[in-house]
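Re-run with default settings, no changes from the original entry. Doing this only to confirm the output is reproducible before filing.
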Amino acid sequence: MFLMYSMCQSMPAGLRLYGHPKLLSVARSINGADFVPFNDAIFVKQPGLGGSVAWHQDGVTHWNAPDWDEGIHGFNFQVQIYPTTVGNCLWVIPGSHKLGKVDIKGLVEENAGSEQLPGAVPLVCNAGDVTIVNRQAVHGSFANSSPDLRISLTFGFHRRKSVLGQKAALSLTETNAVYDEKRIFERASVIQVAIDARQQAFPHEPLFDYAPFAGLEDQFRFTPETVSRVIRDYNIKDLSI
């Protein structure tokens, strides 16, 4: 097992993490008050078993868009459950998110065929640390030949304008779905339920105000009804671009 989905449904702590006021404040500062979710995944790299992830850039939809810029494909948080080391962590080439679509194969050839690309840095972390990586940055990870376990809770956010009206990308269940207002609202409602779940567990924390749901908070409290209506199978409505 190396990848798990639906942390907000399968892990109560995952839902509470999703509603963390400081992380959501970061998402708002980067993508605007009407930011929307991307998806989430739990990456597991077992000692001596965790496979490699080739160098790549995330993002599919907007590489040739006339309004392309360095933030158009959003970003990912990655929360580390265990310390990460140079032997098991994610590696990133800083600044590569500003270059457009990068010829990664060419970079490897220029580096005499070595997969250890120059300029890449390891995201070495303590348990509980959170990294933020632009989805357009060149990144990847080597096979975990170390004795150290890595489990990373990864979830991302987009600008609303980057998502609205786009066709679903990288979906295993959809081919022609369009991200309209209804689809975005339904997927974003997970954020509002997560905010309330967090507040119920940590009532003394600041309460994050998610602008798209202003005035609708009572309809999206963390209850058995909203778990069934909003959280169940929420990941089939992910907003991948």
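Helices lie at 7-10, 12-18, 21-31, 104-110, 160-163, 181-201, 224-231. The first helix runs from residue 7 to 10.
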